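lol forgot to send this yesterday, sorry. struct tokens for the thing we talked abt
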């Protein structure tokens, strides 16, 4: 039984980041369902989570959630996401 279902247009960004250690293919999807946060999918690890700007600044936690084991790489990916993620959002009022 479905308790809730909705449809909306969303914005997605597909990006490949290459570091000295690895390649990271990411999908970054924005939706009003996440209250301004982005759904980020790391295609190689099949791991995803919902992040806001503050979440991606915590390199260790961010890297662990997406399966980015190398600390330098987690920091580089995080720095990129800080540049492209929205800084301000307006939460939907319920």
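and heres what i got for the seq, position by position
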């Amino acid at each position: 039984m479905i308790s809730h279902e909705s449809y909306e247009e969303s914005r997605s960004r597909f990006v490949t980041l290459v570091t000295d250690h690895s390649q990271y293919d990411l999908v970054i999807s924005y939706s009003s369902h996440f209250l301004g946060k982005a759904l980020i999918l790391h295609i190689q690890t099949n791991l995803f989570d919902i992040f806001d700007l503050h979440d991606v600044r915590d390199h260790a936690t961010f890297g662990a959630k997406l399966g980015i084991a190398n600390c330098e790489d987690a920091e580089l990916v995080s720095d990129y996401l800080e540049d492209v993620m929205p800084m301000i959002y307006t939460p939907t009022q319920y």
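Strands lie at 11-18, 23-30, 38-42, 47-51. anyway ping me if u want another try
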